[in-house]
Amino acid sequence: MSRFQPAPFPMARYLALPLAALALSALPASAALSGFYDSGEQIGLILGSEAVADAVHQAPIGAITNTGTRKDGAKEWTVRVQECDLKVYLKPILPNGPGKTTYEIEVPGRCD
């Protein structure tokens, strides 16, 4: 018979709280994205838009600039290509509960 007996407070009890905290910190955040990541998502949407590519006739992009917000809350971006400044609007679509805002792109004009 072994003379070793388990301690009254096993090590698992001491590890339970730190392990639970670590597991919870690995869950995705339910808060909004930071401004940096949100603007990165907006720029990615603009760059990936077939409507924007068609509106600028596939011309190389010189700059993409956030130029304001419309009264309806749409984010205004200006896409600079050669001799044209194309206005692009991103209308926010709020999530149903916690989550990030997504955007619908609106390209009202074209470069000639």
Kindly describe this structure.
The protein is an alpha+beta fold. The protein has a domain of 75 residues. The protein starts with 10 loop residues before the first helix and ends in a 6-residue tail after the last strand.
> What is the N-to-C order of secondary-structure elements (H for helix, E for strand)?
HHHEEEE
Helix and strand composition category: alpha+beta
Biggest β-sheet: count, sense, barrel? 4 strands, antiparallel
Strand % is: 25-35%
Write down the overall mean pLDDT: 83
Spatially, the strands of the biggest sheet line up as: 1-2-3-4
List its salient traits.
about 110 residues, alpha+beta
Helix-strand blueprint:
Layout: H1 11-25, H2 35-47, H3 50-55, E1 63-69, E2 75-81, E3 84-93, E4 102-106
Antiparallel strand pairs: 1-2, 2-3, 3-4
Could you give a short description of this structure?
This protein is elongated. It contains three helices and four strands; from the N terminus they run αααββββ. It has helices spanning 11-25, 35-47, 50-55, and strands at residues 63-69, 75-81, 84-93, 102-106.
